[in-house]
Specification:
mainly alpha, Arc Repressor Mutant, subunit A, 2 domains, two-stranded parallel sheet, two-stranded antiparallel sheet, 56% helix
Amino acid sequence: MNNTVFDYDDYKDFLRDLCNERPKGFVSQLAKAANCQRSYISQALNSHIQLTPDHVHGINSFLGLRDSESDMLLLLLERSRCASASYREKINEKIRNLSKVHNRLSQRVKDNSSKISDEAASNYYSSWHFAAIHIATSSTILNTQKEISKYLGLPEEIVGKALNQLKSWGLVDLENEKWIYKKGISLHLEDNSPYNRSNHANWRIRALANPMSDTSIHYSSVFTISSKDVPKLRKQILDLIEEQRKQIQKSGSEDVVSFCCDFFVPAT
């Protein structure tokens, strides 16, 4: 199922959709995980009867949900069970806050790899060519200074200096006159990183210099939309980025490609 618990307002809808999608016998597995009878699970999902926190805790463990997803499922359950309007509003506030954290791009593409130093980052994000040359070394066809220079249209002297700097930062290695991309170091910037502005600007300026071709897409649009559809469209874009990252991980590594994306309300 592509949807997550964050796409639902009711924990029962989430569990019902799971049951409808999974093979026969899944309801029995849920009941076993919740330590209750199958008939009780079926009745709870199709009537006013509510599951308990203990039930949902067991289901969370069985489904292998991430901590944030488990917390959300329990909050939805808690909201369904509560009778006090003021308490329900407190739960709604917790749900909104948890959803905001989940929808941050840095949370969706979280990387637990080690980071480069702040000094190295300030230089790395000062120009587009550092990232381009760095990523080029991960290509199966771009392993020498000359190959990278020709591919990116940059002077060999600039490429050579950049490669040596990247090596000093621990991002590449030189073996048998071939430059090798080093894995295990994350270059994803957090939302509050001081280098976000320069990184975004570098690649958008580079995009403006890129000619239209069969392999490139350059698209800008300004439009009006219903307020309730803004978060929906934002989520679709986040889902695309998440799916894109999965595709990249499974793909080969011949071409260096840039993807820039902006979605915002100009008045804010």
